[in-house]
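Memo to structure team: turn this sequence into structure tokens by end of day. - J.P.
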Amino acid sequence: MARKKEIVAMLLAGGQGTRLQVLTKDMAKPAVPFGGKYRIIDFPLSNCSNSGISTVGVLTQFMPLELNSYMGNGNPWDLDRVDGGLTILPPYTAGKTGEWYKGTANAIYQNIKYIDQYDPEYVLILSGDHIYKMNYNKMLEFHKEKKADLTVAHINVPLEEASRFGILNTDDDLRIVEFLEKPEHPVSTKASMGIYIFNWKVLRECLIRDEENPESEKDFGKNIIPMLLEEHRIYAFPFEGYWKDVGTIESLWEANMDLIKRKEEFNISDKSWKIYYRHEGRLPQFIAESAEVTDSMISDGTIVLGKVHESILSSGVSIGKNAKVLGSIIMQNAVIEEGATVVNSIIAEGTVVKSGVTVGHEEIEPGKDMITVIGNFEVVEEDTKVGGN
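Reply from structure team:
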């Protein structure tokens, strides 16, 4: 019998991530590289570790091989524990047939036995596709103080973006009086971050009731929260730090650029709240005298002979002589050959941009999806021009 835990974290990491297009063709969205040496999954896992939450179930489904391999036994995040630690929870066969996770709520429902073995007071629900640093203990303290059955973390967003989120309306005590999933005409800017703390007994009962309802979409935002709103105490926990949902190409590119342009707001090198990651040891880095590198993040194991400005280079990247990389993300082991130009683009792992090629467009407009993306292990041949979007 597992030892009783006060809180268990459940990390939803099974989404297909179709809006990330070719970047998630062969891997789950949380495994997508970020910031040169990290993966998206590193952020919620590091937040758990830094918050002292040592029992984390990671629910995987779509193309999980690379993600599972990357997480391993949880060692980089101090989650390789005998009692608790990191557990990968894929869909499994029950009875004669197996069943895919049908929604966020159903995914937790299918893992009730996993949670029950720890008999927790509270369950923390997290998403695997957000970039942020957050002390979950502060949210738990708020939850206890309010004697809540459910606490929803929220962040204020611009009114013009509010229709993309679940929107909360609260009273003066931050008790949620209305929850609208992606409303067409939002009247509040309090957006749900998809981070929830539930009293486990309450959530368990709701999951069972929801599973029995054939009309339900088995979703937290559409079904579970509205169900709780009628008869339970639900509160909104205000979060004021940096947070980015990186579900689209543009938001992923913006979040990477924020590491350079908004360092004071989101310091990824802050030693008081480290973002841990799996690495295979330090590799030598070479930046030639002829190179010009400004306002960029250059990982270990890179070779830079050309110009790099406001860009992020992952390990093993090679930038040739007279090549230009501007406002771009170059992922592991990609090669930008001599004289090539890459601007406002994402070049995925192992791709080769041949000599003289131009990729991307210098003029981009926010919200216009003009970031150019080249998928994994492609070769962009000479005399090719790949425009914006």
